[in-house]
Design a protein that fits this description.
Blueprint: H1 7-18, E1 28-30, H2 35-50, E2 54-57, E3 63-67, E4 76-82, E5 85-89, H3 95-110, E6 119-124, H4 137-143, H5 148-152, H6 162-168, E7 185-193, H7 198-202, E8 207-212, E9 214-223, H8 240-257, E10 264-273, E11 283-292, H9 295-316, E12 319-327, E13 331-332, H10 335-347, E14 353-357, H11 363-366, E15 372-377, H12 393-412
Parallel strand pairs: 4-6, 4-7, 7-15, 8-14
Antiparallel strand pairs: 1-5, 2-3, 3-6, 8-13, 8-15, 9-11, 9-12, 10-11
The chain binds (2S)-amino(hydroxy)ethanoic acid (HGY) and manganese (II) ion (2 copies).
One manganese (II) ion (MN) binds near residues 93, 128 and 385.
């Protein structure tokens, strides 16, 4: 089979999607169900229609573009990723897996391949936690790891509920209808940029992912006493921000204390009130992201944070309330899908590394209902979630080529 990726066409589509943003290029901001997200969806759906795929959207906006197989009643093989982007992001996170997956399907069709199993491209809703505070919203609901009632309770910072936001974007129907059963897909493969420096450092063009780190995110509210920044003497203060600062340092200490390089944690959001330079902060809200490929180590960081919060609260005379938004288990990728990706690299004489994913992805949740693995391509200096995120057209095309080869193997299985 003469399998060829249209490298220029694929890169052109990625650049065009990158220009669909709430911010001027090169910044990509495409938050779920905003106008930019809807324009991005429309752009990708039109490409899928142009590619002859049949489209379906579920009640939360997960979008399915299917290439019917010769045995359409068999469980399909799926591939895909996300097109939503956090504020001030880049143009490759997620989109490489969606547009690279589409190009893999088109290349197979151009080469005259006819799949035994149908092949389905999925664009997952809200992989990023930006608007509703929890990552992988669409794939969690699809895999049954977030029940519909919990989903319906989600609100954004303006108090807009998930139901209101999805309805405004044209997605209706009960959230409970999003769930797909185990066995619905025979396999799932996600192409994605590494979002880390290892492949580039090792000068290897492809990574076959064997496990995906377990993410947890917490929200912490600290309530102290405000007051005049000049009139209240230090012994009398209950400064909410300084309490939050100590908790933030405990987040870092907890991650470093495991002694494992795979344990990571940060405070990615910090809001304080009233936010006047001459007023002692009375209220602070922070959001914490903690991860590890080993769940017990990740959970030890959560315990450290809980202990530190209680100690700081007592010593500083503030109240601290912690809420766990999510604390997911890590995912082990399916050996058969890992093998299909490794064999596909070999079939094209391409070197690859077996590796873990430190970022989470929709694959983390698809792995709960289907044999799943991921294929990474390098991104420059490992930079991601920044406008200077970059993956070369050659690397993207190479990823799409191996993905296409793997789809052949998986759809014939
Ligand atoms: O945060 C993550 O790991 C993913 O990029 N949303
Ligand atoms: Mn991301
Ligand atoms: Mn991503």
């Amino acid at each position: 089979m003469n399998l060829e990726i249209d490298q220029d066409g694929l890169s052109g589509e990625i650049e065009a999607l990158g220009a669909i943003s709430a911010e001027p290029a090169p910044v990509v901001t495409r938050v779920v169900f905003t106008e930019a997200d809807r324009r991005g969806r429309d752009f990708v759906k039109q490409l899928c229609r142009d590619g002859g795929l049949s489209l379906h959207e579920d009640a939360v906006g997960n979008t399915f573009a299917r290439w019917p197989g010769q045995e359409p009643d068999l469980p399909a093989v799926a591939t895909g990723s996300h097109i939503d982007a956090i504020p001030n992001a880049g143009r490759f996170d997620g989109t490489v897996g969606v547009l690279g997956g589409l190009e893999a399907i088109r290349a197979l069709a151009r080469a005259g391949f006819r799949p035994r199993r149908s092949i389905e491209l999925i664009i997952f809703t809200a992989e990023e936690p930006t608007r509703f505070g929890i990552g992988c919203l669409g794939s969690r609901l699809l895999a049954g790891l977030l029940d519909a009632s919990a989903g319906a309770r989600l609100k954004d910072r303006d108090g807009v509920t998930l139901d209101e936001a999805r309805a405004a974007a044209g997605f209706t129907g009960p959230l409970s209808s999003v769930r797909l059963p185990a066995g619905h897909y025979s396999a799932f493969v996600e192409l994605h940029i590494e979002q880390g420096p290892l492949l580039e450092k090792r000068q290897i063009g492809l990574g076959v992912v064997t496990a995906i780190a377990a993410p947890a995110s917490l929200r912490v509210w600290i309530e102290g006493e405000g007051g005049h920044a000049g009139g209240v003497l230090m012994p009398a203060r209950h400064d909410a921000f300084l309490a939050a600062a100590e908790i933030a340092l405990a987040v870092e200490a907890g991650a470093r204390a495991t002694g494992a390089i795979d344990t990571v944690a940060t405070v990615g959001v910090c809001e304080l009130f009233p936010g006047a330079v001459n007023s002692i902060p009375s209220r602070v809200r922070i959001e914490i992201d903690a991860r590890d490929i080993d769940q017990a180590r990740r959970d030890s960081v959560l315990e450290t944070i809980a202990e530190a919060s209680a100690e700081v609260a007592a010593r500083r005379g503030v109240t601290v309330r912690c809420e766990t938004v999510n604390a997911d288990p890590p995912a082990q990728c399916a050996p058969a899908v890992v093998a299909a990706l490794a064999q596909s690299c070999d079939a094209h004489g391409l070197r690859f590394d077996l590796m873990i994913s430190r970022a989470y992805h929709d694959s983390l949740f698809l792995a709960r209902i289907a044999p799943t693995a991921m294929l990474f391509i390098p991104c420059r200096a490992g930079i991601s979630h920044r406008p200077d995120e970059y993956a070369s057209p050659e690397a993207i095309a190479q990823g799409a080529l191996v993905l296409a080869e793997a789809l052949v193997r998986l759809s014939e299985a």
